[in-house]
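Extended Data, record Pectate lyase
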Amino acid sequence: MFPVLTTLFIWMFASISCVSSSSSFNLTLPHQHPDPDSVADELQRTVNASIWRRQMLSIESKDQTFSCLTGNPIDDCWRCDPNWSANRQRLADCGIGFGRDAMGGKGGKIYIVTDSSDLDPANPTPGTLRHAVIQFEPLWIIFSADMTIRLKYELIINSFKTIDGRGANVHITGGGCITIQYVSNVIIHNVHVHHCKPSGNANIRSTPTHVGHRGLSDGDGISIFSSRKIWIDHCSLSYCTDGLIDAIMGSTGITISNSYFSHHDEVMLLGHDDRYVQDSGMQVTIAFNHFGEALVQRMPRCRHGYIHVVNNDFTAWQMYAIGGSAQPTINSQGNRYTAPVDPNAKEVTRRLDAAETEWAGWNWRTDGDILVNGAFFVPSGAGLSTQYGKASSVEPKSVALINQLTMNAGVLGAPRYTGGDQGIVYPGFSGGNGGNGGNGDEGYGGNTVINNSPIYENGGGGGGNGNGNDDYFGMIFKANGNIIFPIFSSVNYLCTLLIIFLMYIVAYYSALFSL
């Protein structure tokens, strides 16, 4: 009887010790940053430094460097170099936020896409985008000329790739479209992604040595699945069947910046299912984007994780801008939220699938945001206090500069929406082009607040859930070729060894006592 009771006691003690030791930092999620507030803090310092540099150079207006500086730290990092096209890979050093370590194809060869076709996704033709993105080696992919790439099926990208559309007008559309799955270190820069539709039930090559059967895709613009170190910058996304950008199944280390979103219902999903706790390690930076005309909801819609929404311009939504469930942390800093005319859609935030008694403890914070046309942000948890971790140690940039920081959002040099009824038009594609009204750039209308404090009332301006119940829990996830069992982690493994060792000792000495 003694050995049995002793064994049970040791098992319980070891299990409790293992749970306690892992509660402070979840080692089952090895790619998360241990201090996400410090990443938000560093981003604000970077913005401050970039704007200070611009202000200092403006004192001497004869300095030609000043004319290209915007205060946007990403653009100011590379755009002022007149020979940027000869030094394209410098872009990889300009990242910010949680995706700042994404290397893309840095250090690799330049691959020039010369063929816009996608005739055989199982055996892609050399010179096509599909042939470039499946290679094992790091590649910096550029385009020989303007082109529209009409995909037959989803484009599956391998690790250490940069798709760099600078210098050409590149459109990616059709079946899929872009899939980033079980990989790392991907940069997508300066391309249009639009009119993406479900496709699949076909063989698709994902590496030079692997062709596999793929089921039907959702029709996302960019799908990020169990991947990390991803940076999407200066893209224009619209008119897709499902989401414009979805990041799910443990993806983390993501930055979405300087992009232009329009003409879509469910814009961005971060986290697939409330039950999938591995998404609690998801960390995403959303910075300097313009959420433009004809958008409805999910900018983003979050489950679990830490989402830093900073210095974006939200000029349209019909239901809500930021939504979430399953206790995500939302850190909203220095954004401009312009509410629609609908009096029932003024709230920026929406908690989904939770009663107020539950979401009251979620950490949702607004800091330095400007709220226009009656918009209001409902904070909760630590967001109700004046302090919010280390992120509060650096003041977010004033949204008076939001026009400057987001002026080049989307594909560089692409047409901009200016209000009224005319939206973005893609020749050869059908789809509604209606807008929801624009907001002026020279001032704000009445009912404008900063941090819930009224400011000037003159000037122009104004402006006009799926729960995902698919069962993914029987899957085995892969990252960089290594199999990862999401539940049985390294901590569980060590605890199990400890328990077996202690049980062996108990059994051994029990045998001695019985002699």
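Summary. The chain has one domain: 36-454.
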